[in-house]
Amino acid sequence: MNYLRKLIGHKCYLSPVDASETEKVAKWSNDIEVAIRTGDISDMITYQSQRVYLETMNNNHGYAFYIIREDDDEVIGIARLMRVNFINRNAVMGMFIGDGNDRSKGIGSEATNLLLDFGFNALNLKNIMIETYSFNEPAIKACKKCGFKEIGRRRKSIIYGNNEYDEVFMDILSDEFQNSIINKVLNK
Q1: In this structure, how many other beta carbons lie within 10 angstroms of the beta carbon of residue 72?
Q2: Which of 18, 148, 161, 185 ranks highest by number of CB atoms within 10 Å?
Q3: Domain CATH code at residue 132
Q4: Where is the signal peptide (predicted)?
């Protein structure tokens, strides 16, 4: 498929989400490894419900992108800004890499930086937050690598089986973000 290249990195690029990848995303959403990390393990996601969700992701309160591998134009995940508040200039970021073979290769960090660049330098946001879980060490590590700082925890707020985990809140401010592709284009 021919995807739009909204924000381009070295390993990946971001393209606006549409319903073209409904089947793939529905499979990821039902994959236990993905669903546990996104907090969607109890959701009943069908192809139809996934299609509707993808069609409504880019509304006036959010911006969603497919994460696409640069070398073969394969969709490997989703990165999004949700609960965008233009009055207070903040948003919540969410992201996942669907296939385990594409994780731990730096693609998630690059996609995070591209999304932060969009949020700070295209939408003029001041604060972007992420919510994850204490067991999701790869996400916490990737966020710290991109400049996020932990701002708090909601203790024992998620229970899987007999295990209780904290919800971890991290954020980054626009003046802490250093990896702007948008500013490089403007300063050519």
Answers
A1: 7
A2: 148
A3: 3.40.630.30
A4: none
Q: Express as a percent the part of the chain with pLDDT over 90.
A: 51
| pLDDT tens digit sequence for 133-178 | 999 998 899 899 999 999 999 999 989 889 999 999 999 999 999 8
Q: What token pair was written down for 47?
A: 């192809």
H or E segment and range at residue 75: strand 75-85
pLDDT at 1 over 80: no
* Residue 108: both structure tokens together: 């998630």
Q: Which long-range contacts (CB under 8 A, 24 or more apart) does 94-101 make?
A: 94/38, 94/130, 94/131, 95/67, 96/28, 96/34, 96/37, 96/38, 97/67, 98/24, 98/25, 98/27, 98/28, 98/31, 98/34, 99/28, 100/33
Does residue 47 sit within a domain? Answer: yes
Q: Are 61 and 82 in contact (CB under 8 A)?
A: yes
**Does 94 fall in a domain?**
yes
**Number of DSSP helices (H) and strands (E) in the chain, helices first:** 6, 8
Integer Cα distance of 78 and 95 in angstroms: 6
Query: 15-24, 37-46, 52-61, 163-172 — which one is most confidently predicted on average?
Result: 163-172
What residue numbers bound the domain in which 30 lies? 7-186
- The amino acid that residue 169 corresponds to is F
As for how many domains the chain has, the answer is: 1
Q: What is the pLDDT of residue 94?
A: 94
101 domain-assigned: yes
